[in-house]
Give the backbone structure.
Amino acid sequence: MSSAILHISDLHFPLEDNNNYRINNSFKTLFIEYVKNLKHEIKYLVVTGDISNESAPKEYDNALNFLSDLISEENLNINKNNILLCPGNHDISQTDLSIHRRGGNCNSSNEYLSHSIKFKHFNKFYSDFFENKKEFDCEKAIFDKIVNPDDSIIICGLNSCFRESSQKCDHIGYIEENSFEEDLQKISKEYPTYLKLLALHHNPKDFKAEKQNLENWNTIKQKLNHWTPYAILSGHIHGSDKKSEFSPQEGESCIFLSAGSLFQKVTQSTNMFNIYSINRDKITPTIYELRHPDDTPQWDTYSPQNNLQPFSLQKTKSINPPPIQGINISNIEQNLDNKLYNTKEQSKNIENIKTDKSIINFIRERNLFKSGHFHWNNGFRSHGFIDINNLVSRKDSLEVITEQFYKQISLKNENNFIDTIMIAVGIECNVIGARLSALFDCKYSFIPEPTKDEHFTNIETKINSGDYQNIILLKDIIFKADHLKDLLEKEGIKNKNVCIVSFFYCGVKNEKENIFSEYTNVSFISICDDITINQCNYSGNDNQNKCPIYTHKLETIYDEC
């Protein structure tokens, strides 16, 4: 018998007996007995929020008794390591938040950040259920996860109530993005071939045109691009459904599975729960509904219009990052800020740019450092990658980088750019180089692909055709500078003064000062030295399959750029 997930949601245990809820003992017994007799081995339980109705302690006491009975040995016999309890908007203690705000401890605009107050009663319920072996970490986007190697499955519990408060404007689903990115990277590295599911309260798909669904879903979805295929289990809308959305990678989809309210009486639907059978990489969803609720209630399967056929969450063997978008060189001039670059006098304004941002800030906030094993070509094999394309394609980070390049080069050249040519190596550096050459009013050229000898030859010809004594070379990342050294060996460059400026130096720190020591005419400046990336020891032709990490897929492999 295959393993299965029981997905229930929106229990809404009330503070006192209420005709709006079906929570009497006979109804709870009817549900437990029905599930227990189904032909499924229920191994996992996922509850996607709104466990209580007003986040009152008595409500959680009743929920605790019900869930403990449900998973008990005489009933479903579910191990608590295989259970996720997600908070919903009704699990926010709005009363405590209001008291906290009126006491002057916060204001209406930042009330939602009082996480310890708003989750106080849910947190106690959570700890009581897990017998103090787990605490609900309200600061984390992924607060808990189920990992089971027998089924090769991981189910992550997400807190989608980060923005919820007692304020009406905060009644919105939102996932904290920074910790989500960080944990997502770790999970991807540790469980690359596992079936992946996310459980949360707010439904990302806007089935009812509600503004209260997941506000930042588009951002979260982008961060999940390399996690596909995956499934999302949710509640909140009090209706069951299954929908799929295809990701940019053809054939890989995101599956949305919502569970209806288990106990609350609803006008447009009836009480529902879902079961997902797991058979290797296939998951088969089944939706159950309550028939004749006010007469002789009984549970039965529900067949909506949507396709409920099995779906696959099989992971591909390797993950390819999105291709770096090339820059249309012919449009560079019209994309520059003409007001800034019209005259040399105006260019001095860049010295007055003030910012509290560093390149590292942008990398951390946007998750631009990618860990993994990169075997993109014979010349680039490393254990990490920085998405520089993102840095130069967005205005805020582009301004910071331009400012830092400008100050470093001005200081080095003492603002004297007579007989100087600036050369950008690579497409991303061309974005910076075009701006800087306009600022410094010097000649400019670039090498599209730094690994091709014909491009080096073209640049050498360009240098020899003019009376240039000074060369400024712009580079994105320098490890050992092997390709640049090939360029430095060209006859037309040996007798020139060369200043090399890079975004990042990612080699061994104590080797930086000596990296160009054999050249008396070369100086080297890097904007950021804080990121060290180990290069693969198996670079070069025919060496790829000698790399044990690549051969045995010991880490996420990126083998195409």
About this structure: The first helix runs from residue 25 to 36.
